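Bumping with the actual sequence this time:
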Amino acid sequence: MQLHHSKHHAAYVNNLNIAEEKYRDALEKGDVTAQVALQPAIKFNGGGHINHSIFWTNLSPNGGGEPEGELLEAIKRDFGSFKNFKEKLTAVSVGVQGSGWGWLGFNKEQGRLQIAACSNQDSLQGTTGLIPLLGIDVWEHAYYLQYKNVRPDYLKAIWNVISWENVTARYMAGKK
């Protein structure tokens, strides 16, 4: 995970900063063509930064187990049980074609939890409107050193380091 953080996440931040600087220049010059051309880099690198910033806070060496309180009750209400939720999010994450993310999000309009997948570095809230609670990075860079290309093994292990305190705090903030 140190390599993941220090190399991959750092690259998203650096590339976002470069794209934003070029975008500011294009705005000042009124160069709409350049502004449009820079949007994919901003979306990709900005999404990579947003997603990873959530991902790091979702993890803890003291994580694992199950959530408690209101989050657990919401999971039971929306998925039937914690086991069903875990199986569904794992299946959605395994099923991401290529690179992307599996997410637990909160649909504020409906007051319900939802599972979603996002391709590449698309941010959950920016592409679906869901408030991100738990993100699982399924780019191979997240797991290749330890799990090679065996995504299901990585996904089985990731549940042992989920910080349910962080996910719960995100849920409570999203409900406000």
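The tokens above came from a reply further down the thread. The radius of gyration is 17 Å.
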